[in-house]
Write the structure tokens for this entry.
Amino acid sequence: MFDGFRQIYSEIPYILSGVGVTLSYAVIAVIFGFWSGTLLAVIKISNSCILRSFGSFYTSIFRGTPLLLQLFIIYFAIPQILGIGISAFMAGIVAFSLNSAAYVSEIIRAGIGSVDRGQYEVAKVLGCSRLQIMGDIIFPQAIRNVLPSLVNETIDLLKESALVSIIGEADLLRRANIVASEHYLYLEPLLVAGACYYTLVMILGIFAKLIEKKLSC
């Protein structure tokens, strides 16, 4: 094994350069997924039967099909239908964001449901608008209640970003596979990639605990 690491030593910076690509997918998809999921959660608890049905249908589609299938449809099928090209990066961002929105919407909806209904009634009596109640009272508490679940979703998204290697994006895993195929050594490059993923997840977990501790104060 040590001899194998010596052989790929010069290639390690090349593998590590894929961390930026992996983080790009994760960060952008998390941001879009969070805001889209929040909007979707609000739709699901709205008074409109049509909106609620749309929200439920959207969630069922993206939770009921594999993420890899969704990625393939966006990267291969949609360009075929529309006659336009789409980059691997854009396909990955769209697929991960849409998929994440479905899961985040359920998490936030559960968080909103966990807030005591009495607070809503009291705020309504005091003359607060529905927007003020949701934005200033309900939503902050809901986020605090579901923060661990949101962190888990972010971690899952970070790891699932490795799927873009299948459509040719030079992320962390694909770079490790390229090095492995060039040197006919698979264990060592994959261990390097695995160590990078593990480190990123641990850093994210520490960051989440700091936020959770700050919110609990």
About this structure: The radius of gyration is 21 Å.
